Amino acid sequence: MAHRLQLRLLTWDVKDTLLRLRHPVGEEYASKARAHGLEVEAASLGQAFRQAYRAQSLSFPNYGLSQGLTSRRWWVDVVLQTFYLAGVRDAQAVTPIADQLYEDFSKPFTWQVLEGAEATLRECRKRGLRLAVVSNFDRRLEDILMGLGLREYFDFVLTSEASGWPKPDPRIFREALRLAQVEPAMAAHIGDSYPCDYKGARAVGMHSFLVVGPEPLEAAIKDSVSQECLLPSLSHLLPALDHLEQRKQGF
């Protein structure tokens, strides 16, 4: 007799879980600047981007939607501030670079599917699981997933821009459960952020798996995430799901 799955829904983070940038942000910015006649070191731009992104996220959370911004305006401002911090003070020269970067980051050629991602999604669908995206991304995500051939695996794509709530706000997870008409105990979330993905999903009663890299885990994560919920790669997800099902059934 076929094994009857207890889980019904898997929700997925996207960036650094299923996809990553083909090149570091600093290199992308430096390349576009060079095409517009500006020479700026990639390392300086990478460092400046991290600073600008952090400040923008604190001042205007979730793309500043509640403060009158659009996600495009939010990102253009991040690019302008990145170049300013890297020593380029001419906003007029940087604006066309910012516009080009916004467009390029919506194209599949800027992204790559992580190893094992598509095979894992395909196998999850074969097992009868419903899949959905829950991501702190903006409106460009649908087109990116389509261009990379991944959109077909998901019942729906829920972004923080569309919902108005960024992870780890419980409302974005509850909205995903509502759309899927699934109880929290019958759903699991997969992502690479401990506060946004792992803790955010568990706070609403969902199961959760944390995708981790090769670097050592922080003590807080080690102490609070059980080993079977840690995924060194996406190929570890299916055995982890099997383990969860067996544990739930008392095997």
TrEMBL record:
Pfam families attached to this UniProt entry: Hydrolase
InterPro entries: HAD-like_hydrolase_domain, HAD-like_sf, HAD-SF_hydro_IA, HAD-SF_hydro_IA_REG-2-like, HAD-SF_hydro_IA_REG-2-like_cap, HAD_sf
SUPFAM superfamilies xrefs: HAD-like
Signal peptide: none
GO CC terms: nucleolus
Family, per entry: Belongs to the HAD-like hydrolase superfamily.
Annotated NCBIfam families: DREG-2, HAD-SF-IA-v1, HAD-SF-IA-v3
Entry protein name: Haloacid dehalogenase-like hydrolase domain-containing protein 3
Organism: Panthera leo (Lion)
Phylogenetic lineage: Eukaryota, Metazoa, Chordata, Craniata, Vertebrata
